[in-house]
Amino acid sequence: MTRLFVHNPFFRLLSGLVVGVMVYLLILLINNTIANVETIFNNEELYVCIGLSYISFESMRLVVLVLRRFVATQQNGRHILLQTIATLCVSLALVTLAISLYFKFLLGFSIGSSELNLFLAIYFFVGLLYNLLYFSQYYLQLENKELIAEETKLREKIDADFFSFRNDINPDLLYESLENLILTIHHDSFSAEEQIDYLAGVYRYTLVNRHKELVSYQDELNSAKNLLALLNYKYRDCLHLKSSVRDDHTIHLIPGSLLITIDAIVRNTLISEKSPLTILIYEEDDYIVVQHQLNEKLIAHTASMDSFLRLQRSYSFFSENTFVQVKAGNQNYIKFPAIGVTQNVEEPV
What we know:
- The chain is an alpha+beta fold.
- The protein has two domains: 5-155, no CATH class; 170-340, Heat Shock Protein 90 (2-Layer Sandwich).
- It contains ten helices and eight strands.
- A five-stranded mixed sheet has the order 2-4-5-7-6, with helices on one face. A three-stranded antiparallel sheet has the order 1-3-8.
- A hairpin with a 2-residue loop joins strand 6 (324-328) and strand 7 (331-337).
- Helix 3 runs antiparallel to helix 4, helix 8 packs parallel to helix 9 (257-267) and helix 9 packs antiparallel against helix 10 (302-314).
- The longest helix has 57 residues, at 113-169.
């Protein structure tokens, strides 16, 4: 948030000068001597009014800083009342002290009650105006900050929708699957039909759920099994998936969580018949953990890792628990926040 005007050096420098002149002219007006200002103009009295204005503004600014440090929130009526009273009390007390000392030690006599009350009344309204301007700018900036935050979230959602659409297509998976089909269809039509079924299952799932915010873990797991079965045609059955997560349809994930994660794991892991890839999925506290052995490729697959990072950021919108990836020893642990959703069944009327 931009600094408030009371902390601006130019405002602090000019406010006392301008208000001091206005206070001096107002006093002359109240005393019916404004018409004779050219003959009765007194530099010393003007400087006193300017000095009192600086004392008033700087003391109120100091109170604002102190309250901002020690008061938890500034967004309620109690704080407005507290700041207004505190700034007025401190400002008027210092103005009283300063004007009394000026009259006593420089003019040689005590200030009269009428003159003192006049100064206090003027600086009372100056203090009210100061607080009015402060809170008007404060709440205006607060509203602007909320609008900017909403615009930022909207832009992030649009970006997320765009990248989600690209992830739904996953051109690398589509082209690789079609290439495998071309190699298979001429000598094993049954295997080619199976690949088509698995490929259709993966893309049907992503397209059906692309506008959903959450899906059940079991639906996500079934789609992940289709993906793994499809990839096994390329990797010669070297991919294995084992899940021990309970099947009660209360655990939900963002659509495509397992698909994107498994795709990123497979594309960035060296896999062979002597070094197969086994992916374990299990529950741990409030997380769904995906575990596999590390055997990273020399060059990372950029597109899959970018999709994985976007998925990681997406979970911050749905859970207070953070999306965690930990590499310990030769194992990689990817932890999804397990989002619990309770389904309320409506009774028929």
